[in-house]
Amino acid sequence: MNELPLKYGCNPNQQPARLYVETGELPVEVLNGRPGYINFLDALNGWQLVRELREATGLPAAASFKHVSPAGAAVGLPLTETLRRIYFTPDLGHELSPLASAYARARGADRMSSFGDFIALSDVCDLDTALVIKPEVSDGVIAPGFTPEALEVLRAKRKGTYNILQIDPDYRPTPIERKEVFGITFEQGRNEISLCSDELFTNVPTKAQEFPAEARRDLKIALITLKYTQSNSVCYVCNGQAIGIGAGQQSRIHCTRLAGQKADNWWLRQHPDVLALPFREDIRRADRDNTIDLYIGEDAEDVLREGAWQQFFTSRPAQLTPEARRTWLSRLSGVSLGSDAFFPFGDNVERARRSGVDYIAQAGGSVRDDNVIETCDKYGIAMTFTGIRLFHH
């Protein structure tokens, strides 16, 4: 099959719509559901991302995509008990498989943005991973295969309409890609640049020169994630997973602030007071996630005022004070940050530092590189100039 009709394009009024290849057969098969135009955009971008993460790290990888940018991406490292709690992973009576851990991390880092995601998996989907996916609100999943047990679980989602796509892992597109805008065709070479090599860390202009193995891994994860994130974009990574992604901002500092706020929220969700929130047993997952997001932010009164807290909690929790927030956030460290282009000013480093960033990878080449380097040196941050721009549109 070389063509797949779609119900409509990005919006219901955009018809007709189809997915096709000019030669050969489509490398993707619909095993269940009826995926749409945006579903396929998320699926195919997500598949490229996890395939490259797998190649760069040697670990199973997963991505949670929303509207053509990743909400989360991670590799399959074991979950701590705290992460299991804040990601609300099911208790299967054993340690999750690496692929299931990868998706729990990808989904859990920014649960607000991941709501209704399209999932990409680097490896054959196993039963553990399907059971982690099962309770989440999601549009679909793409993987190179599915075990029979996993397929049975996933086909039951959304009353049998859950979108399940199987991709040929050996498929490689032609080196030239095209797209049409306003009746005009754009053509370019595909962005096939590899981000797996330690050569990324050879041009280090800062006084701090060392990048431990974990930091190199995390910076590669950040850069590969940015390769498939709508630009401008910045990505914070910690312990093998993206913890904050800022996508599609016109200003670089706004990317850094947005991603940094998401990283802060990820860390604040691990605060003992947040872990101890007395939720009602009948609260829905999405309402619980939104409640946590409000509780740790500046709008806590929206869920703590009289008449409101009773909808979410069995008793009214104490508010997390600004001092408690600052103290907890000061404990976050070892974070790696990637940028899809150069930092034009040191203000990006100042903001990144507040979210525990100790390692940075960026293109370099700004007329204000000296200011950026000086700011890194002030905080002992190791920064590498990759010489690589990763714009994605």
Q: Taking strands numbered 1, 2, ... along the chain, how are they ordered across the largest sheet?
A: 3-8-7-6-4-5
- Helix fraction? 25-40%
CATH architecture of the largest domain: 3-Layer(aba) Sandwich
Taking the sheet with the most strands, its summary is: 6 strands, mixed
* Distance between the ends: 28 Å
Mean pLDDT: 96
* CATH homologous superfamily annotation of the largest domain: AICAR transformylase, duplication domain
Query: Looking at CATH, which topology of the largest domain would you report?
Result: Cytidine Deaminase, domain 2
**SSE ordering:** EEEHEEHHHEHEHEEEHEEHHHHHEHEHE
Number of strands: 15
* Share in β-strands: 15-25%
Oligomer: single chain
Properties at a glance:
393 residues, alpha/beta, Cytidine Deaminase, domain 2, five-stranded mixed sheet, 14 helices, 34% helix
Question: Topology of this structure?
Answer:
Elements: E1 3-6, E2 17-20, E3 28-32, H1 37-57, E4 61-66, E5 69-75, H2 81-87, H3 98-108, H4 111-114, E6 117-121, H5 127-133, E7 138-143, H6 148-155, E8 163-167, E9 176-181, E10 184-189, H7 213-227, E11 233-238, E12 241-247, H8 252-268, H9 272-275, H10 285-295, H11 301-304, H12 322-329, E13 335-339, H13 347-353, E14 357-362, H14 369-379, E15 382-385
Parallel strand pairs: 6-7, 7-8, 13-14, 14-15
Antiparallel strand pairs: 1-2, 3-8, 4-5, 4-6, 9-10, 11-12, 11-13
